[in-house]
Amino acid sequence: MATIQEVAQKAGVSVATISRYLNNPAIVAKETREKVEQAIKTLNYEPSMLGRNLRKSESRLLIVLLPSISNPFYTEVINGIEDTAIEKGYNILLCQTDSKPEREEIYFNMMKNRLADGIISMDPTVDRAKLIEIAKNFPLVQCSEYDEEGIITYVTIDNELAAYHAVKHLIKIGHKKIAMINSGEKFLYARERKQGYLRALNESGIPFNPDWIFTTDNLEFDAGRQAMKSLLGKSEIPTAVFAVSDILAIGALKEINLKGLAVPDDIALVGFDKISFSNMTQPTLTTISQPMYQMGSMSVHMLINKINGKHTESIILDHELVIREST
Amino acid sequence: MATIQEVAQKAGVSVATISRYLNNPAIVAKETREKVEQAIKTLNYEPSMLGRNLRKSESRLLIVLLPSISNPFYTEVINGIEDTAIEKGYNILLCQTDSKPEREEIYFNMMKNRLADGIISMDPTVDRAKLIEIAKNFPLVQCSEYDEEGIITYVTIDNELAAYHAVKHLIKIGHKKIAMINSGEKFLYARERKQGYLRALNESGIPFNPDWIFTTDNLEFDAGRQAMKSLLGKSEIPTAVFAVSDILAIGALKEINLKGLAVPDDIALVGFDKISFSNMTQPTLTTISQPMYQMGSMSVHMLINKINGKHTESIILDHELVIREST
DNA sequence: AATACATGTGTAATCGATTACAAATCATCA
DNA sequence: TGATGATTTGTAATCGATTACACATGTATT
Fold it and tell me: Per-residue confidence at B185, pLDDT binned at 50, 70, 90?
């Protein structure tokens, strides 16, 4: 691998000239430029990012923290992140924490070690205190999550309103017995969506039945099944279910089918996230669509602003209710 | 951010001593060590990877090339890659090509620019000639794909045998009219799986009906639906279908359901890959399980061997037929 | 006491780029 | 013609670490 020194020698100019050519070809004289181009071509030279990065003290790498890549909700967000990052000359390091603090630690250290220029955190389970500590010293934005105290810049949707819309839709098509499959209330979004659910019921004068709210301890398919199993075992069975994630809804759907009941005739079902699989089930799933690509794209813009020392405001984006066969 | 120089000054020793402490604390005297530890702590020092990387001319980053992260087949492979890489002190750069050559180019350049130490390619659509060219000059292994000429080191399964097993299973449970939903034969694995399908039929004396082989132009859900629609429109309708990917199979399942037919009673269905969603459908999908985690893990071991200049042999791993409700 | 060897530390070169500053060249114009 | 300013290039310091080599000290051996 040729270095800039060798190119300089071959072209009969100094390394400074080569560097100038690399960074702004226009400022080197036409004649010199041709010699440099010639030398680069014959030596098959490619500049080393290692040298450049050290000198500029930047890595042009962004860390994206997420619990797990297998959750399809994130894939579309990642597309937004990746496209925007590449457009801005950055690359992304996709980091799965599996909600394990020691994994988190590794990635926070990469930041401290200057192997990354900033962090986009999409992990709801990350330790809040540590995150705030990091955010004080390094560029960091939260995507689809946020900190109630508003110390950390974020981009997200209005979870309360989205849940409200979902439940309102169920009420509008005639349901009164509406259950909710929620994830642990340690998550802010879970608390907010529950508020939206309650507000919709309340507004329509439907009494709240605590029997019909089921809290799962994870977001997997099986948790959805268990939740539905429990709901189907209640003395009074709901006619509609709002699940806070599509995967949970798909688990519920499976359980409903197993019990010989039909969606939407016996039980209507609304999910959340509009993952691609929500369109592949039988029946297809009514769900809340988040502007995932846009969220990803925005968070990169915000992060790069932070890296460049500019101030950035948090943003709340719009969601959309997608009505399909399950309601 | 403190540098090694400042730490050295604070501790009253030379930078060499700090560096030695960082890389092998045992070789610095106990007394000095304590001074160094003290200085590091009070300055809150974290060594810069930029400096280290330049000096060692390595980045400790591995590029993982894949068509799209949204294909769940890859997520488990990635887990294997990530765990093993971290264990070996490397990090991974997940790179989606979307099968676009210009995206590929970006990532190959990162390699040339020394921003990555090696590449694991899982992209079947990547330009072969270019891949071989890269493999000649840089550490590269192929995972789940391979080059027929055997120039590039790879880890994969025996696709012909896996398809053979899948079709044999259908024959064993009484099917004679067996269709295949295949992806384009530009992919080596598609050609191989077709061979396995033909061998199984042939061995059981079942004549091959060209009407029953459908070639899709992509691997998406809708392609599966279209394929099944076509098969259901034939003059003679098959009683079993072998699809070369679970997503295609799930698309087919949707179409079968829409036509009011039942799986497995009217039509039996076998997929390929054992993605997590294959267990969430109604009915669950019989499929071929590839050792995805192991494939990922192996490919990292092989790549690191290559990076360290050691010779490495290609490997073919075992698959497994997972029989579930759809057959 | 002389020698050999192990242990611990410092000096300074090095990795491959960028860039401030100085210097050389050239054209322009009074 | 000489001053002025623009354009182009070179010199050398720099980013933050690692490491070969040299040197000083302590310990063991005869």
Answer: confident
Contacts of A220 by beta carbon, 8 Å cutoff, 6+ apart? A247, A251
Average pLDDT for chain B: 94
Domains of chain A, residue spans: 4-47, 59-157+292-318, 159-289
| Torsion angle (degrees, nearest 10) of CA B291, B296, B299, B305 | -120
Domain B58-157+292-317 has CATH 3.40.50.2300: yes
Fold category of B159-289 in CATH: Rossmann fold (3.40.50)
Do B4-47 and B58-157+292-317 fold alike per CATH? no
- The CA–C1' separation of A19 and C30, in angstroms, is 39
Of the candidates A318, A272, A321, the residue with the CA atom closest to the CA atom of residue A156: A318
CA A33 to C1' D4, in angstroms, rounded, equals 28
Q: What is the predicted pLDDT for the residue at A100?
A: 86
How many percent of chain B have pLDDT more than 90? 86
Query: Nearest nt to B8, CA vs C1'?
Result: C10
For strand C, is any atom closer than 7 Å to the CB of A19? yes
Q: Nearest residue to C10, CA vs C1'?
A: B14
Residues in chain B closer than 8 A to A54 (CB atoms): 48, 50-51, 53-54
Q: Is the CB of B13 under 7 A from strand C?
A: yes
Choices 2.50.20.10, 3.60.15.10, 3.40.50.720, 3.40.50.2300: CATH for A59-157+292-318: 3.40.50.2300
Strand partners, A242: A180, A270
Distance, angstroms, CA A18 to C1' D11?
Answer: 14
Q: Which residues of B touch A112 (CB under 8 A)?
A: 46
Query: Higher confidence at residue B100 or residue B245?
Result: B245
Chain B residues with beta carbon closer than 8 angstroms to that of A82: 96
- What span, in angstroms and rounded, lies between the C-alpha atoms of A149 and A152? 8
* Fold that domain A4-47 belongs to in CATH: 434 Repressor (Amino-terminal Domain) (1.10.260)
Nearest to A227 by CA among A286, A183, A176: A183
